[in-house]
TrEMBL record, chains A, B:
Transmembrane segments: none annotated. SMART domains: Gp_dh_N. It comes from Halomarina halobia. Residues 2-140 form the Glyceraldehyde 3-phosphate dehydrogenase NAD(P) binding domain. Keywords: Cytoplasm, Glycolysis, NAD, NADP, Oxidoreductase. Belongs to the glyceraldehyde-3-phosphate dehydrogenase family. It is an enzyme of class 1 (oxidoreductase). NAD(+) binds at residues 11-12, 110, 168, 314. InterPro entries: GlycerAld/Erythrose_P_DH, GlycerAld_3-P_DH_AS, GlycerAld_3-P_DH_cat, GlycerAld_3-P_DH_NAD(P)-bd, Glyceraldehyde-3-P_DH_2_arc, NAD(P)-bd_dom_sf. Homotetramer. The lineage of its organism: Archaea, Methanobacteriati, Methanobacteriota, Stenosarchaea group, Halobacteria. It catalyses: D-glyceraldehyde 3-phosphate + phosphate + NADP(+) = (2R)-3-phospho-glyceroyl phosphate + NADPH + H(+); D-glyceraldehyde 3-phosphate + phosphate + NAD(+) = (2R)-3-phospho-glyceroyl phosphate + NADH + H(+). PROSITE patterns: GAPDH. This is Glyceraldehyde-3-phosphate dehydrogenase.
Amino acid sequence: MIKVAINGYGTIGKRVADAVALQPDMELVGVAKTRPNFEAETAVAKGYPLYAAVEERRPQFDEAGIDVAGGVEKLVDAADVVVDACPSGIGAENRSMYEEHDTPALYQGGESADLVDVSFNARGNYSEAEGADHVRVVSCNTTGLSRLLAPLQEAYGVQKARVTLVRRGGDPGQTGRGPIDDILPNPVTLPSHHGPDVNTIFPDLNIDTLGLKVPATLMHTHSVNVQLDAAPTAEEVRDLLADESRLFLVPASYDIDGAGKLKEFAMDRGRPRGDIWENCIWEESITVEDGVAPAGQGDAAAGADLYLFQAIHQESDVVPENVDAIRAVLGAADADESVATTDEALGIGL
Amino acid sequence: MIKVAINGYGTIGKRVADAVALQPDMELVGVAKTRPNFEAETAVAKGYPLYAAVEERRPQFDEAGIDVAGGVEKLVDAADVVVDACPSGIGAENRSMYEEHDTPALYQGGESADLVDVSFNARGNYSEAEGADHVRVVSCNTTGLSRLLAPLQEAYGVQKARVTLVRRGGDPGQTGRGPIDDILPNPVTLPSHHGPDVNTIFPDLNIDTLGLKVPATLMHTHSVNVQLDAAPTAEEVRDLLADESRLFLVPASYDIDGAGKLKEFAMDRGRPRGDIWENCIWEESITVEDGVAPAGQGDAAAGADLYLFQAIHQESDVVPENVDAIRAVLGAADADESVATTDEALGIGL
C-alpha cells in the first residue's frame, strides 16, 4: 500500500484525502491542518489521523478539544509521498522540509512551475512525473484545458487554441470575494497566465488565453476556439471527446443550461459535496466552422475552427489528477492503469 | 427642422428622445407610450408631448391624471420620421401603420433584419440608409462590434473575427431576470446570432461569435480576437482606434477595472443617466500576437492575432446611432457631418 500524507486540509486537501482513502492501493496515513475549524472536526469524525501543520498553533487544537497525532514532520516522515494542498505560496515554503525527510511531494497549481521538476496532467504527460521528487498538479483551468486539448492535438493537430475563461469570482465559501455585479477583465493585460501554464504540459502548443471574473461561485466556464489542422465534422469531434473518461458531454436532452443544474445533477447522482471531477462540455455547443486561409492561400490550408463551451468545477477537477500523480511519481502504475483505477474508485463517468 | 416622433418610451426611447431634443436640426414632436408609469410622468415633466401608443389604454392615462395629446397615429402623421423603440416584435406590428402614414421608420435591433430595407450603423454603412422607408438600428452588441471592426477592416484587413460576448443578464431595472449565481452559455448552440447580425452591416466579414449570460447588470463585455491580414503593432492599433470618436480607450492610469467604475466615471462626468455612448476598450488589453500560418505555409501568410476587451453600455450605445439614422434616411447630412453634429450635441468623447 502507498502511504499518503496530505499537508493542507482545505478545499483541495480534504477532497484528495477522501479520494486517496477510496483507492485500493493507497493508505491515508494522515492529514495536516494549521488550525481547528469545521474541516478539522470533520477530519476527526472521519477517523483521519490529524496533525498540526504549524507547531506553534498546536495548542489551538487542544483548546478546541481536538487530539492531534503530532506535528506535520512526523506525518511527512511516515509517508511514501506527501500531497501539499496548502494555500498558494506555502507549498514553496514547505519544499525544503519535504526534502529533509526525503519524501516526494506533489504541489497544487497555485505554486510556481519553477518550484518543481515537472508540472503534471494525467492525460497530458503522466510518464514525465515518474521518479520526480517535486511535481506540480496544474490548476483547475489548466487541467480542464489539458484534458480537452490532448485528444484534439493527437487526432487533428492544433494550429492555435484561443480560449476565453469566464471565471467564477470565488468559491461558495469564499464570502469575502467579488465581484458582486460586474464583469472584470482579469487580468486586463493579455494573454492571461493560463496559456503559458498549459505550455508547462504541452510545451509546443500554440495557445492564447483571456480571463474574466464574474459574480458566480459554482464553476468556471470556458469559451473555446481551437483552430485545427484537419477539418473533422462536429460529429467526429463529439465521438472523439466522448471516448475520454474525464470529459462529460452534457446531452441536450438533460436540459442543463449552466453550472447550477450541473451541480444539482451531480448532487442527485450522490457525488460527494456535489463534486464534478470531469470537464462538462455542452454537446450542443460543439461546432466546426470552415477555417480561414491567410490571404493568398488556398482553402486547403484553412483547416477548421472548432468551438465549444465547457464548465470546470474549480474545487474538484484536480482531485483525480492528484491521485494519479501519486502513482506516477512512485512508478506504481502506468497512465492507463492509474486513470482506470482512480476513475473506478471515485465513480468517475456521469 | 426635422420633425421626429418616438414610439415607445422605455429604456431606448426615452434616451433617443432626450438626444433628439438636443440636436440643432431636430424637433421632438412627441413620444408615445402604452401605459402610465414613472417614465410617462418624467416625459410630461420634461414637456414632451405624450401620446397614447394603444388607443384602448388611453383611459389609464386619464386615471393617472396624465394629459395625452392624442393617439400614436396622430403623432406619426405629424412627423418626418418615427423612431420605433417598442419592445422586440412590436415594431413589426407597427410597420403597416407607419406605411399608411407614409412616415419613414427606424426600428431597434430586436426586430428582424427581414423587416427592413437596411440595417444601420453610422460607422459601417451610413449612406445605405438614404431614402429607405424602413431602417433597423442594430443592437447594442452589434453596434459595438461594427464600430470596432470597421476601422480594423479598413486599415489591416480582417481574416476572421472571433468574439465571446459575456453579456449582462438584465438591465438594472429588469428585476425579474437572471442568472443570480451562474454562467450560462447563451445560446448554447453556436454561433450566436451576433455574428450574422454583424453581417447585416458588413456582408463579407468573416466572424464567429459565442454568447454567455452572467449575473451582472451594468454593461456587456466582449472578449475579442481579430485575425488580421496585416501585422500592425499594438501601438499602431491603439492609435488607429483612438482616432474613432465613438471608441473610448480606457487609460491604464484611470484605474478602471470593470463596468462599475466605468459607470461611476460617466456619472462623475455628468453623463445623463450615467450613459456611456462609446465602446469602452481597455487600452492595456490591446495585444497583438503572431498569427499562425496553416501547416506548410510560411509565416508571411500568418498575419496577426489582435486581442482586446471592450465593455458596451447596452442601454445607450445605440442612441447616437438612432440620431444619425434619422439624418441618413432623410438625406439631411452625410456620415461625417451627422456624426460630428450628434457627437457635439451629446458631448461624446470621454
